[in-house]
Structure formats: C-alpha cells, structure tokens
Prior knowledge:
The structure holds 2 protein chains of 2 kinds.
Chain A: H1 3-11, H2 20-31, H3 36-46, H4 50-57, H5 61-64, E1 70-75, H6 78-84, H7 87-96, E2 109-114, E3 126-128, E4 131-133, H8 138-144, E5 155-157, H9 171-179, H10 182-191, H11 204-213, E6 220-225, H12 234-241, H13 243-257, E7 261-266, H14 273-286, E8 302-307, H15 317-324, E9 348-352, H16 353-357, H17 359-365, H18 367-371, E10 381-386, E11 394-399, H19 404-411, E12 421-426, E13 433-435, H20 445-450, E14 459-464, H21 469-483, H22 489-503, H23 510-523, H24 527-531, H25 533-542, H26 544-547
Parallel strand pairs in A: 1-2, 5-11, 6-7, 6-9, 7-8, 10-14
Antiparallel strand pairs in A: 1-3, 3-4, 10-11, 12-13, 12-14
Chain B: E1 2-5, E2 8-11, H1 18-24, E3 48-51, E4 58-59, E5 70-72, H2 76-92, H3 102-110, E6 126-127, E7 133-136, H4 145-154, E8 159-162, E9 169-172, H5 188-192, E10 198-200, H6 201-207, H7 210-216
Parallel strand pairs in B: 1-5
Antiparallel strand pairs in B: 1-2, 3-4, 3-5, 6-7, 7-10, 8-9
Amino acid sequence: MSRNLIEMLRAREGEAPATALTVLKEAIDERGQISDDDRRHAATVSGLPEATVYGISSFYDDLLQPRGRRHVCVCTGTACWARDFGEHVREVENGLGLAMGERSADAEISLGQTVCLGFCHTGEAVREGAIVDAGEGSPERAVAGTLREAPEPAGTSMLDEPVLLQPGDWSGLRRALGELSPEALLAEVKAAELRGRGGAGFPAGMKWEFAAKAPGTDKAIVVNGDEGDPGSYIDKYLMEQRPELLLEGMALAAWAVSARHGIVFVRSEYPRSLPILQAAVERARDDGHLGEDIHGSGLDFDIEVLEGAGSYVVGEETALLASAQGLRGTVSARPPFPAERGWHGKPTVVNNVETLCNVPFIARAGAEAYAALSPGATSGSKLVCLNERFNTPGVHEVRFGTPIGQICEQLGGGLRDGHEIKALQIGGPLGGILPGWKLDTPFDFDELAAEGCMVGHGSILAFDERTDMRHLARHLLEFGAHESCGKCFPCRIGLQRGLEMVEREGPVDRDRLEALLETLELASLCAHGGGMPAPIRSLIAHFPDELGVGGGDAGDGDPKGPDDPYMRRPAEPDEEGKPVDW
Amino acid sequence: VKLTIDGHEVEVESGTTILEAARAAGRYVPTLCFDERMDPFGACRVCMVGVEGAPGPLAACTTPCRDGMVVDTEDETSRRIAGATVELVMSELPDDPGGHTELAEVAGFFGIGEPRWQGEQRRPAHDGRHPYLVIQHELCISCGRCVRACDEVQGAFALTATGRGFGSGITAGLDSGFTDSTCVSCGACADTCPTDAITEHLLLELALPSDKEGERIPT
C-alpha cells in the first residue's frame, strides 16, 4: 500500500464524498460497465490519480464482468461443488447460452461467477441483484428469471446457555462502561485467552494491547466481515441474525483501546448483510449505544458499514485495509502492522466478526466463565457450519475439543441419502483435508494442526464417496489461482503452475509438486499462497493414487540430471572454488 | 541493535532491515523487487534468509533487525525456495531476459536452467506510443518497481499495477500510454525496471538484431 496514496486520501479525509471503489461500483451497477469517463470521475471524487483508479478498476471481480439488464451470478464455491461437482454451473450456462463472464449481444443478460454466496447449507446458489436463490431447482429458476429468496440456515447450540447464538442485549457494554476501566477490560480479554476466529487464531487481547498503547483516540476498530472462505457462512449468520452482538463487541473493543472510528467491511456476495447491519447501527445510535459520550462514559465511537467488491484475498488484514480505503486489495508486508499504521494511517485493530461476538460475554461474565465454556480445551465456544451434504446442515455452537465425528453425527445427523464421509475440509480453502477415517480428531487448534488441518473459519465441509480427489485438487487450485492478489511472486505464478500440474491428464510428478508446495508455503507473502498447499498436501498424504502422484520419476518424464541445480550437493565447489550450499 | 550476519557481528541503527545490514556488511543477498530509492515492497521473495528461531525463512528487505538476531543469508531452505521462485518467474516469460538485466543476473546466480514448471506464459504486447519509452508487457514480472518509482521518486503517479493473480501487469494512465498520462518522461521507470519491460527505444534497437526490430517495436 503506497504511503503517498494513503497520505493523499488522508489529506482529504472527511472531504471526499466516496472512495474510488465506491464510485466505480456505482458506475457498473447503473450502467453495466465502467468507462474511462467513470474512471476520471472516480479519480476526481476520491482525489486519487487516474492511473491508480485504472488499477483499482482492473482488480475486483465485481468491476470486471460487463453486465446485461439481467446479471445472473452462479456460485462456484466448494460447498456447491461438493453437491454436484459443478453441474449447476453447466446447467445455467447451457440454459442461458452464455459462458461465465459473457454478456448476450443485445446486452439483455449476462452471466458471472461468484465464489461463495454463503448458502452452503442448501448448495446450488445463484444470484440476481439482491436476490439469492439456492437448493433444488435454482439453476432452472435462474435461467427462467424466477428466482426466489432461499431460506436462511438454522442455528443450534450444544451449550446449555448459548453464547454466540444469544441475541446481543448490550449488557456487556453497560457493565464495562460502568464497572471496568479500559485497562481492566483489556486485561479481562487477555485473561480470557480469546483467539481470533478468522483463521490465524492470533490472541485478540494482544492485538488490542498493541493498539491501546498508541496515544490519543484517533484509532479504528475494523471488522473483517469479508468471510470469503468457500463453505463458511458463520460470519454471515452473525452479521445478519446477531448484528447487535457484533456492534456491542466493537464498542467494547473501542472502549478497551480508546478508538473513535468503527468500520464493518462486508462482502458484496452477502447482499442481505449490508442493509441489516446499517439498520442495526441506526438502532444502536438511537438507543445511545453508539455516538458521543456513550452512556455518560466519555467514549465517542461510531460505526460505518462498507461493502467489498469481490476478492478473496481482501480477507487478509492489510488487503482489507487497502480495500476499505478504496484501493486495490493487495497484501502489504508487515511491519508496519495495522496497530501502528492501519486505516487512513491510524492505529487500527482488525478483528474477525465472530471474534468480536465473543467479547460481550467476556465483558459480562468474565474470563473465568469464558474459559469454563470448553473445559480442558481452548477457551470459549466456536460456531461451526456444515454443508448441505449433511442431513441437518446449519450453524452449530460447539465446545472446543468436541470430536469431529460427534459434530458430524449428533449435530449434522450424518450425510443425507446414506452417503458416507470420504473426507472433510475444515476451516476454509486453506485448511487441510481430514480423511473419513480420522473423525475422532478433537475440534481444536493443536489437535487439528497435528493432522495438517486447522480450526480456521470453522466450516466443516463434507465430501462424500462420489468425490474424485484429483478433481477436488483442481477445484481448489482454480480458486487459489483466481483469487491470488498477484503481489508476491510465489503465489502469483506458483498457484497457476500448481493448477496446470493437476489439470493435465496423467500422473503428477510428486517431487515437482512438493517443491512447488514448499515454495508456496515458505516464500509467499500472506496466508493465501502459504495456506493453499495444506489441502493439496493432505490429498498427497491420504489419497495419493487418486491424485496421481507416483514416485519422483512418475509424471512428465525428464528425469533430473547433474545439470539440475537442485541436484547439486553442498560440498560441490563452483567455478571460484567456493562451496555452493545447494 | 547488535546482530550476527553469516558469523559476523554487526551493529546497526534501530529500524534497519536485514537486507540493509547484510549489504552494509558486504554480503550478497539477491533481490528483484527491491530498489533502495523506494520503500521495501516484499513482493519478489528472492531475498529470503534464515533467522535462528524463526518459524521459516524471512524476507530480508521487510524484516527489521533485532538485538541478538542470528542471520544466515546462505540458509539452504531460503536459497532453495528463492531459487524456485526465480525459476517460476522464468517460466512465465516467453523470451529470456536480456543478459544485461537484473533478472538475468539473479537467474544466473541461482543457476536457473529450463524451469521445472511449465505452462501459460505472458502474451507479447507492446506499447510504443511514447517517443522513447516502450512497454514490453511480456517481460513484466509485476515487481512494482516502475509504479513505485513513479509514485515515490518522481511523484508523477502515471503508472499502476493492473489485474490480479497470474494476469497482473502494469500500465500508464487509463491504459492509454505514457503520452496520455501524467508521465513527465523522467525515465525513472525504465531506469529501475529489472527486465527491460519498460525501456528506451534507442537501447532496445541496440540490443536487438535488426531483423527483429519490426516484430517488436510498433511504429
């Protein structure tokens, strides 16, 4: 993220009526495509250079696909894929006579792909405008133009008193403002050992502490509502069904670190989330939970809701901050960390939606009660969400440490129509794949890590016995390559090469694949390139025959000779007589 | 801040990166996206080094030195993944970069031959609308140096990164060429480019056999 661009934006803070991204989104919403005049207008409004605006307009999915008067989007997420392996996509393509990304010659209709509309509990999700349809018959309705609103998922809790499924009542904020100093609240959150729920599991209290140390109140709490992980709809559920819980968590974070600005960044793939959150913010202002001198505490804090434009990597915190300022959603190297220089250069806390939804309970009941929710395991409770392969999919609140098989059987009711679990992908596309014979693994950070998997976002996505694992590898790498932000070289090129390796017919050279995965894992700038190898490694470990990885000599021939630099031995001297180390 | 680099104890000012410290100590650390005139970017991942106690290799250009750090610029894993990354870069170029370019030098250092991974390459596309600055898009490796030179050195903001993922690239103005942008023809972009993706007409003509000129430079 260019410091000069951020300073340009900062100089106009409060003056620019909209970001360049917002202006471009409005242009394509109104006119179906973006012209150079739109770009010039976006530059004038935002105060950014024209070239910068061009770069923004070429980055986001939502800005790239020209739209007809009807714009139909089909979900290509992993939960939809696990149901019919892409058949619904072909059905819509054939029905409309358009390929993905095409617009009819008369500009009447266009077809776009979208990665995960968050209707993983029904599958076959399609969208037109703000209407998302899903489940049996939705592809036909998409073709006919008769979409209807799909049902939202159910939520259940295995706790006697739900924590995350309980509607927010602002009692945690009232208690904190009345009884806890900012330092005391911060200490409580640290004592609760609340770990981030967005994937990395970083201790939230530590993040807060970094930001709290910065002087003044010109700081921001930014909520990462860009739940892009295909198969996850937990944050969607919380934003739409429990918005007060999230807003209360934000206000508590603001109290703990002394922040004035709150931003919720919502994905554009969740058209229902934005208006629901905006309405909840209005209500909270009316009730005095947001605004100036909240409940007489001296805390000034207000919240703005922003919408993304179609990019998975924007879920990474530095990319999210760039996108929230209307720039290209590419990742930046840290330091500087957001806690030092984040939104508009201010000290910023970036937390995931579910992470903040845990905070009201901690403020109300204390760290000890929070730890007691999952005895002998990670503190607190966790929402998991199951895909439509299960008999009773939906959002379930579980204790950490619960065996995964128990979640699948007791909460998920096993797979529908007598299907069997071949494997599960847990936590999102960067999570490893747990084979069906390891379901006794407890659902917790360390135990899953030992299996090459992760808690991640908490999605539990079942693949049944019909699933071809080579096809799955291709599906995952297609997603990975499409969503790479393109900044760091290993991810930008490596995911494309990985995809090409599994796309080709015939065996895959295992040595080359593993060398590629190692490079992605260790050299990538962020968790996207770094994490994409995890599921592929699981497939190599558990389903090598299906993946087509033989020994080192299999694959496209060309055995390594002495000229291959990777075959050099450490002691072999180079021309100058110095030993080369590889 | 005191640290050890390849067995030598060095003392640097707080805020110094490992790359700066290593180069000051006379160690060679290869880079592609780094140019000392601009802020470190951390994109090419070629300056990876080993640091004792770190979970894995670190990018020297964006990692600040800390007291007591023990750095190995020739760490085996770091060199292996950095070399593989350069190999990936070579696999996306339809032509070898000119022998005088930084990319050719770095590829030579790692001993890169035929890349182990083959596939789609960058499509040849040339922009010769400026009197002497040319963009050869197929040689662009998206290191961002030209964009940052235009932004941080010249302050002209005529260039931008475009697209994303494998389709990333660069362009001037509204993809309208240098002359129809805020370009001030300073040449900072061509000066910093490690592959000749942006270069000057004259240099290009000198570097190419005359029978290839017509193919590569639009008139």
